[in-house]
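Thread amino acids onto this structure.
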């Protein structure tokens, strides 16, 4: 979670849009957005840790997820 806050401090970027009415309004406030970003970063780190603990295959899962994101960004012309 500290990495999420540190990332915001360094880049100024945080999650501000999740396409859910009401939540997007709350994420418009900087404090809520930074807390949500820190929670999301901590959640992803713990999810990968749990996957690795169950079967030791987290690197394969991460590669598959990153390839999927790359395909989506190429399709959206967002390199």
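Threaded sequence (79 positions):
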């Amino acid at each position: 979670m500290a990495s999420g806050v540190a990332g915001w401090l360094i880049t100024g970027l945080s999650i501000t849009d999740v396409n859910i009415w009401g939540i997007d309004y709350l994420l418009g406030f900087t404090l809520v957005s930074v807390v949500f970003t820190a929670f999301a970063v901590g959640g992803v780190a713990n999810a990968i840790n749990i996957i690795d603990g169950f079967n030791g295959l987290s690197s394969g899962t991460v590669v598959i997820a990153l390839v999927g994101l790359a395909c989506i960004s190429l399709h959206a012309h967002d390199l």
